[in-house]
Amino acid sequence: MASGILVGIEDLIGNIFQKGPGMEDVAAIGAGIRRARREAGITQATLADLIGTSSRTIHAIETGTGNPSLATVVAAANAVGLHLRPSDE
């Protein structure tokens, strides 16, 4: 059952990244990851290597495009010192 929930969340995140409600949140998360990466002085390629993904995926996360998995977005955020957590809303 839990894996079904995770897949559902990843599908939702993928749909949000493509288009839909919350695009401002997606853009803000991506911009935050980009800002933290640049402040850390690392390239998209280096970040990609650190978390085991492609530079193209890092670009997609930072620009709010494509369909990155939730796990990859969280890994990218964590690698640059950011921690995503649910809102109290």
Number of beta strands: 0
The total count of helices amounts to: 5
Query: Low-confidence parts lasting 5 or more residues at pLDDT below 50?
Result: 1-8
For the residues shown, what is the average pLDDT?
82
What class would the helix/strand composition place it in?
A: mainly alpha
Order of helices and strands: HHHHH
Q: Span between N and C termini?
A: 26 Å
Sheet of most strands: none
How would the global form be characterised? globular
| Architecture per CATH nomenclature, i.e. the level-2 architecture of one domain | Orthogonal Bundle
What name is given to the CATH topology of one domain? 434 Repressor (Amino-terminal Domain)
Residues in helices, as a percent range: 55-70%
Gyration radius, in Å? 13 Å
Share in β-strands: under 5%
Please name the fourth-level CATH homologous superfamily of one domain: lambda repressor-like DNA-binding domains
The CATH first-level class of one domain comes to Mainly Alpha
How is this fold's topology laid out?
Elements: H1 2-18, H2 23-39, H3 44-51, H4 55-63, H5 70-79
Helix pairs in contact: 2-4, 3-4, 3-5
Looking at this protein, list some descriptive labels.
mainly alpha; 434 Repressor (Amino-terminal Domain); disordered N terminus; 89 residues
